[in-house]
């Protein structure tokens, strides 16, 4: 390079360095002002006094008032983290734990993982010096397995308690049990809804304080007629706002990753058809399984406007600044459990009134806003008042396993804030019993039950891993479980359905979806890790990384594979691998002997087996239900006799997903306790 060039490069560098310093200064100042203007800032001293006075305190405040980010910092500065103790804050959702921890670390001017950190399943960013720790409620429950009094925490804050996730409910029950014995420790329950009474009563009339929030008026608009296709209606509304209203960000509530990604693509496509001057609209997706770097994008400035596509995560868990328009199709994906059939499924249901109100409130945080409800006003009146707690609509096997591991043997007598039905408890006990996790007198079995309780997975997956080590195919099962734990790996855009189906065929195994998933995983792994062609030096490593990322991206695009999901699966894989190594399970591969692997699937998922019926449908053994193989399965329209599956989805028909071909005889051989009972 010439001198001139060199010279210019240096001055540029100096300038940008200065710019960086003054930027950093401006940023700190901006954050300071933001913090001071939060409604909670003016009641700091009063709140600290209340916490000092009461061992159990309930704090209720409007979303966005500063509860989650500020209260832990108040407590830290009031000396609650002396003697190595920490403030632990639980969130029902992973995304919230991560984004909030990052924000608070920035507010404190520290690096994430030092004073402020987070810990969620499969991702821990804390260290010995962490004093403010955000985590999921499920993770704190796991910590209770090792430390029943949660003695590391001077304060435990159960945040977003109104969400009433099954983990929150169990955690509250547990904490109620031990709070008296948690010497000098505090319990705070935070909630966005206005109904603090239920928590207060549960904790024997505990003190509740309310924080006034700021809420600007929000115009609510309804459609005149019901919409046939809410995705399409949402698209129309997005562009109506984009073209007519100009200023202000838009937040759309959708039901899940697939829907969000579909809308993202459709928006991009329509933008391309607009005149140049109208094309600028930054779409940002946010949903639970999104990798954390990408979650943060909702907080980055976009001068020409944001279009945030979110799941119900953005109702209360994550406060996104700048939203002026909310589009609410009125649906949410929820777990649902039928104890009679022992079947859990994800279904899309109408929101409750409380959810609809919460959603529209998101538009009025910084000024007056508008909310477009994509249904007629008369429909609103028909909605349920509030959402049913999750514990009343899920399979309890996981909860029971954890409670048993915590020494709570009498599940029926456990003091739940709201008791699940007896039928659901019985069915879930039965399920655990079938999986071999419980002994005849309903204690955790040794070693299987204890091993299962240690794995942070659905019990049926934990059992599959334990069995796989005996079937010599733990490597394959680890990949399978990781891939089953993420959202769909293939995507099939409506407009390119044929192309995507053809692409998917090159991974397809005639034996079914589980092996297909392994094929995809291994192909991705090859791309991201094959380093045969370069000598191993630091520089090469960098080049290799950049190159393989690029190749990977292109490969994903060409094969209609969701790169996000595959990366997420790789993360999960390495974490579970760590767990099973610690447990001393033998990790071997069955190589090309997929028969062995399929036998292991049959032994693991025997509860979900289905047999072909003369008319072409399948009948699930466990539940007797008539089901069909989902069109996304490689076995769709095949004629196999007997299958195991992992998931049932109900739309107009009942579909089974993630399906593998097995032999009926294997079931009687590998799960005789179930298959003789049945006949
Ligand atoms: P609450 O818990 O009461 O709902 P929070 O403490 O989560 O409120 O949020 C307080 C404010 O901080 C919100 O107005 C939000 O805009 C802002 N905020 C929270 N997280 C972030 C973030 N990661 N980046 C930028 N601003 C944030
Ligand atoms: Mg909050």
Question: Can you give a write-up of this model?
Answer:
Strand 11, helix 10 and strand 12 form a beta-alpha-beta unit. With 679 residues, this protein is an alpha/beta fold. Helix 5 packs parallel to helix 6, helix 20 runs antiparallel to helix 21 and helix 24 crosses helix 25. The N terminus is likely disordered. The termini are far apart. The chain has 25 helices and 21 strands. The strands form 4 sheets. It has an 8-stranded mixed beta sheet, with helices on both faces. It has a 6-stranded parallel beta sheet with strand order 9-16-13-10-12-11, with helices on both faces. The longest helix is centred in the first third of the chain and has 34 residues. Adenosine-5'-diphosphate binds next to helix 3 and helix 4.
């Amino acid at each position: 390079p010439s001198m001139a060039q060199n010279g210019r490069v240096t001055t540029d560098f100096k300038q940008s360095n200065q710019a960086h310093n003054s930027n950093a200064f401006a940023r700190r100042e901006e954050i300071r002002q933001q913090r001071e203007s939060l409604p909670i800032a003016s009641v700091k001293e009063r709140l600290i006094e209340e916490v000092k006075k009461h061992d159990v305190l309930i704090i209720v405040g409007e979303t966005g008032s500063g509860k989650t980010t500020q209260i832990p910092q108040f407590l830290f500065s009031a000396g609650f983290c002396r003697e190595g103790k920490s403030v632990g804050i639980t969130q029902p959702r992973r995304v919230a734990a991560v984004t909030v921890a990052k924000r608070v670390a920035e507010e404190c001017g520290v690096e994430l993982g030092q004073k402020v950190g987070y810990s969620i399943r499969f991702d821990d960013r804390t260290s010995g010096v962490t004093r403010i720790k955000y985590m999921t409620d499920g993770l704190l429950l796991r910590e209770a397995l090792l430390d029943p009094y949660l003695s590391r925490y001077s304060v435990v804050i159960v945040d977003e308690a109104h969400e009433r996730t099954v983990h929150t409910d169990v955690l509250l029950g547990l904490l109620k049990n031990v709070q008296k014995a948690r010497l000098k420790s505090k319990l705070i329950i935070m909630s966005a809804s206005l109904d603090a009474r239920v928590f207060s009563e549960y904790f024997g009339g505990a003190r509740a304080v309310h924080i006034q929030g700021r809420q600007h008026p929000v115009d609510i608009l309804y459609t005149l007629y019901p919409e046939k296709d809410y995705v399409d209606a949402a698209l129309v509304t997005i562009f109506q706002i984009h073209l007519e209203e100009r200023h202000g960000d838009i937040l759309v509530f959708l039901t899940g990753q697939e829907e969000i990604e579909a809308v993202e693509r459709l928006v991009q496509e329509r933008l391309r058809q607009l005149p140049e001057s109208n094309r600028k609209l930054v779409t940002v997706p946010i949903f639970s399984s999104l990798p954390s770097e990408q979650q943060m994008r909702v907080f980055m400035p976009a001068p020409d406007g944001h279009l945030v596509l979110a799941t119900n995560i953005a109702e209360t868990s994550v406060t996104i600044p700048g939203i002026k328009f909310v589009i609410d199709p009125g649906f949410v994906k929820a777990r649902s459990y039928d104890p009679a059939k022992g079947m859990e499924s994800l279904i899309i249901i109408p929101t409750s009134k409380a959810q609809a109100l919460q959603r529209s409130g998101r538009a009025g945080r910084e000024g007056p806003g508008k909310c477009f409800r994509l249904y007629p006003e008369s429909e609103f009146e028909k909605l349920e008042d509030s959402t049913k707690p999750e514990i009343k609509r899920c399979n309890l096997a996981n909860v029971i396993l954890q409670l048993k591991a915590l020494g709570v043997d009498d599940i029926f007598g456990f003091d739940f804030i709201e008791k699940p039905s007896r039928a659901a408890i019985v069915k879930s006990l039965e399920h655990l019993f079938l999986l071999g996790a419980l002994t005849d007198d309903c204690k955790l079995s040794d070693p299987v039950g204890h091993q299962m309780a240690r794995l942070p997975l659905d019990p049926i997956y934990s059992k599959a891993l334990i069995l796989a080590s005996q079937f010599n195919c733990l490597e394959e099962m680890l990949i399978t479980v990781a891939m089953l734990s993420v959202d769909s790996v293939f995507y099939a855009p409506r407009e390119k359905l044929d192309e995507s189906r053809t692409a998917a065929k090159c991974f397809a195994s005639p034996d079914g979806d589980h092996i297909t998933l392994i094929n995809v995983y291994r192909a991705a792994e090859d791309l991201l890790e094959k380093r045969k062609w370069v000598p191993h030096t630091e520089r090469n490593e960098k080049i290799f990384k950049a190159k393989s990322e690029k190749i990977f991206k292109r490969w994903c695009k060409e094969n209609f594979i969701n790169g996000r999901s595959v990366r997420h699966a790789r993360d999960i894989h390495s974490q579970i691998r760590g767990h099973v190594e610690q447990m001393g399970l033998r990790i071997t591969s069955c190589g090309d002997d997929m028969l062995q692997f399929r036998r292991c699937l049959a032994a693991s998922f025997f509860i979900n087996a289905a047999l072909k019926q003369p008319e072409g449908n399948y009948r699930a053994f466990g539940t007797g239900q008539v089901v069909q193989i989902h069109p996304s399965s490689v076995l769709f329209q095949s004629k196999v006799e007997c299958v195991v599956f992992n998931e049932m989805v109900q739309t107009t028909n009942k579909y089974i997903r993630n399906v593998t071909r097995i032999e009926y005889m294997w079931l009687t051989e590998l799960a005789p306790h179930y298959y003789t009972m049945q006949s």
